[in-house]
Amino acid sequence: MFESLTERFDRIFRKITGRGLVGEAQVDETLREMRVALLEADVNIDVVKTFVANIRGRLIGAEIGVGLTGGQTVLKEVFQEVVHILGDQRASLQLSPKPPTLIMMMGLQGSGKTTTAAKLAFHFRQANRRVLLVASDFVRLAAIEQLEVLGNQVGVPVLTPKEGVQRPQDMYQDVRRRWIEGMHEIVIIDTSGRLAIDQEMMEELKNLRDLYKPKEALLVLDAMTGQEAVNVASEFDRQIGVDGVIFTKLDGDARGGAILSIRSVLGKPIKFVGTGEKIDRLEPFYPDRIASRIIGMGDVQTLLEKAQSVVTQDKARQMVSKAASNQITFDDFLDQIRSMRKMGSMDDLISMVPGASTVKAQLDFDRVEGEIKKTEAVILSMTNQERRHPEKLDGSRRRRIAVGAGTTVQHVNQVLKQFDQIRKMMKTALKPNGMRALKSLLPF
Amino acid sequence: MNLFQRIGEGLRKTRSQLGDGLSNLLKKPRSPAFYEEIEELLIATDVGPAQASLLVRELKTWEEQQNDPKKDPLVFIEERIASFFPLDPPLWEEKPHISPVTVLFVGVNGVGKTTTVGKMAHYFKARGKSVVLGAADTFRAAAVQQLILWGERLDVPVIRQKEGADPGAVAFDTVKAALARKIDVALIDTAGRLQTKHNLMAELHKIHGLVKRELPDIPFETLIVLDSTLGQNAMSQLEHFQKALPLTGMILTKLDGTSRGGIAVSLARKYRLPVRFVGVGEGNDDLLPFDPVLYARALVRPGTKLD
């Protein structure tokens, strides 16, 4: 996510952190560099100007906070300003006091409306809401089937047009009947993609909006579009009215310009961002977390939440007690690997760790992920008995495992050695003063 | 409407910015500020900084050496823009006697690959060619179904396997089927993938390699489909895809939706890749074969009458 911008910021900050005092000249130099970085990321020029002016206003003549160096003060102000241009607070979806809450998806062709509609349905489904998806894209071939398939995947019913119905507005009565009968709390209406210059199609969308009166008319935008996305959003807002924005394809190499500009230009919040092809890759948009990632401080909060979503408290406690008594088995190890995979890709996870951009440049994620897969194969080639008692693995067993996993005996040995080290490390970490002992083992 | 008028119509948003702006500007007296303004105008339509500055430098030299005051500088700019496009003809024109001409469509999600495959099938059918479609997008929900509907609409066979099947196998089957049934053109759709996903790019490399290895003698085009509204990100897409497999051309979709239609110029010149088609609307006939001269003229001198 925004790698190039984060790297630029990182380089800029590195010049000033660690210094005691930062003078006016240095502040100006830093801001000038940031201005260029932001413009290159395709951020709107007016947004950049305000951004720089605001930070300068607060920094020049400002006193340095207790315990902070000059560089850290600059970093803090930049962080706050980025949070500000991203919208300050998390803007969650508004729910109608009286159900159902109607949500209408709209956007250009190919921005990701249908996929996002399904992801949103999944999001509410996870929160145990009764959700209904409405397929009303009559234009693109098989768009209705696509939503049907996706609805099936997430376990949400999909209302499709009856035989003979040709226009989205003619589905209204049917949709209404269905949500009353089905007691649905959330109704998500997918619409056809359209260009803002296509007057006929925009008229249709306006009629749909008047008909359904959705609580949330959400505009789905492709984050890779850059400034053009902001123009599109302004047009949709002017003609139809936009309550919130969802940016998709953040895992492409979007430079971030649209996301950093839209709030200031449009005055409408970003509600969610799509970060991957899988159905659960729709994240609520938290300005502070994204800001933290952009300026290279990672996103520990999201990382923790992801970890909590895959590992239950009980399981975690069990692990700790097992580790303390040196009873960790290969089954636990396998469990750990799989939980981690559920949290997302290596690349994704590492970017949430503070200071990740330096580490990322040095790591070949495909190789690391390949290694993990190989390790998994080795464990899977062990019998249950062997997984619980790795000390029993003699030469002939190791040979068998190597053949089973399609690797060499050396590699099996390596995995066993790693496992042994992890066992020791966990045990040490749990002793009093353990963390300090552990730190001395680490290279940094 | 003829082809020129239709390209002009598709470029409406771009041209209202560039064409009109240019003709107004060129009436002004020449000064350093004048050249800068021209350059900015070109950059604003995504012609690209390098192309813009080159064009301006050439314009300046040309005007200084020019003694015939009647010659229109717009014509000069138009000719220069047209010259930025490489001129190798597509294989279906170069080797029409060898069949099947096979076209593999690649690109990121949502650029309009499947729709483009459908429209190209329509294009070839209208020219009396037989066509087979390959549904190698086995990932996206209902993508196969979408192609099947195109097949029904155009009465064209669609080679498919079930969702989640190996896309390389589908691609290979499609070409095999085309050979066996003596079909002229095989069009193969693939799943959209973001250029940042290494494993998916590797998969594309594999699909391409598989077809090429098994059937080395067929004329094989690999076209990247790019969404014109994506602007500069199209560069990054092209670069990454080009690393994964040898591209032979590009198709720019949704040209009617952007005021930055100059993107074709910067992509073609920077990557030396011919543009094969441009999409200017939703209709079947709105995918137009690309002609550099007509494109440049529609961009710079939209009011021209065709001789």
Protein architecture, described:
The complex is a heterodimer of chains A (about 450) and B (about 300). Chain A has 21 helices and eight strands. Chain A has about 450 residues and is of the alpha/beta class. Chain B has a domain at about 90-245: P-loop containing nucleotide triphosphate hydrolases (Rossmann fold, 3-Layer(aba) Sandwich). In chain B, strands 3-2-4-1-5-6-7-8 form an eight-stranded mixed beta sheet, with helices on both faces. In chain B, helix 12 links the parallel strand 6 and strand 7 (about 275-280). Chain B is elongated and about 65 Å long. The relative contact order of chain B is 0.19. The model of chain B has no long low-confidence stretch (mean pLDDT about 90).
What is the compact description of this entry?
By secondary structure, chain A is α/β, with parallel strands linked by helices. Helix content of chain A is 57%, strand content 9%.
The CATH class designation of the domain at 91-247 in chain B is: Alpha Beta
Strand-residue fraction of chain B? 5-15%
- Major sheet of chain B, described briefly? 8 strands, mixed
Mean of pLDDT of chain A: 86
